[in-house]
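Q: Convert this sequence to C-alpha cells.
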Amino acid sequence: MKKLWGGAFGERTDELVDRFGQSIETDLNFWQEDIIGSVAHARMLGACGIISQEEAQQLIDGLEKIHEQGPNYLRLDVEDVHTAIEMRLGELVGEVAGKLHTARSRNDQVATDTRLFVHNELLLVLDLVKKLQGLLLEKGDQYRSALMPGYTHQQRAQPITLGFHLMAHFWAFQRHGWRAERLFDLANYSPLGAAALAGSTFPIDRDMTSRELGFTAPIPNALDATSDRSYIMDALHLCALIMIDLSRVSQELILFSTREFGFLRLSDTVTTGSSIMPQKRNPDMAELIRGRTGRAIANWTTLATTMKALPLGYNRDTQEDKPPLFDSLRKVRDSIKLVHLMIESAEWDLEKMASSVRGDFSTATDLADFLATNGLPFRQAHELVGQVVRGCDAKGITLEDLTVETLRDIAPEVPAEALSVLQPENSVRRRESLGGPGPNALGAQIEHARRIYEVSGFPAIA
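A:
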C-alpha cells in the first residue's frame, strides 16, 4: 500500500496494520475539500517564493484536472485521500507534485479539509431547514382554524388547532438554524500552515490561505490548530438535536396516521406494505428516522469518548472523528428531506380531528378559568370543575352535553352562563394570550414567523 512516509523504515508494515489504519474509503467524502485546500496552499507557496510561480501553476492545473475528473480516477490501494490525490497529481504533472507538501503536514491538511467539509455541509443543512420551515409556515397558515386535540402526557389536554401545532415545530427548527449559524462562525478559522504541530520554518503566509479558503482568520496557535476537534463535536451535537426533533415529528406522524387516531393519511410515496398483510400501510420512513436518531446521539458520544483523554498534538485516535461526522450529517440531510415529503404529501382528516375533541372533557380548564374570572379562587374552581366532571361521568354525558338542568343537578354553584365556554371552538377562540391558539394570537404568531422566515439566515426569535 502506497504511503507518504516510510523512508526511515527498514521493513514493510504488516498487511493487517495497513488495512487497520487505512481511511481512504471514508476520506473520499471530502476529496473536493482536500483539492481546494491544496490549490490554496500551492498558490501561497508560489506567491511566497517557496517554489517558483511556474511550479505553483503546474500544481494548480494538475489539481484542477483531478477535480474535473472526479474521485473515480483516484487509487484506493493507498493509506488516505491525501496520498491518493498526491499520487494522481504525480501522474499528471510529474515530479513537481512532490513539492505540494512543502511547509504542510497531513495534520493541518486533514484539519483544514474537515473544517471546509463542515462548512459546506452546514450550508446544505441550513437550506434544508429553511425549506422545512417554509412548509410548516405554509401549512400552519392553511390549517390555523382546523380544530384538533392538544396533548400532555399523551392524553387529551386542551383543544388547539393543527396550524398552532405545526407552528410549534417551526420555532424548534428556527433554533436549530440559529445554532448551525453559530457553529459555522465558530468553525470558520484556518488550521492550514500549522503543519505537524509547531508551524513551519518556511516563510509561509497563513493569512493568504485563510482568506482564499473563506476562513475568518488563521487559528493563532499551531498546536491548538491541529489538536482541536471541538467543532466536530459541536456538529455532532447539532445533528443529534435536529434528529431528536425530526424523530418527535415522525412519532406524531406515526401515531396520527394509525386507525386509532385517523388524523392523517401518509402518501404512498413515503409508506411501505407488508409481505403477508395486503392492507398494511407502514410508516417505515418515519420509523427509520425515529430509530436512526439513536445513531446520531451515539455518534456524538463516540467522539466525546475518543477525545476525553487525548493530550495535545495530533493523535491517530482522531482518525475516528470523521466516520461519525459523515454519518450524522448524511442522516440529517436525508431525514429533513423525508419529513418535508411526509408533511407536504399528508392528507389531513380535518373532520376526524375536530370531532375527536368533543366528549373528551378537554374544556374543563376553560370552565375553571371562567369561574376564577368571576371571583372564585382558582383552587376552589379547580375542585368544583372536578365535581362537574365526576357528575358527567356518572350520568354518561360529556361537558358539551350539559344543559342548565343537568348542570344545576350536578353542581348548583356553577352559573348557567358557564355553559358558553364548554364548546371546543370557543375554548380555542378565547385563548388569545401571546403564543396561544386563538385566532388573533395565532395570526400574530404566523406573521411574526413570516417576518423571521423572510429574513436571510436564522435570527433570534424575538
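The mean pLDDT is 93.
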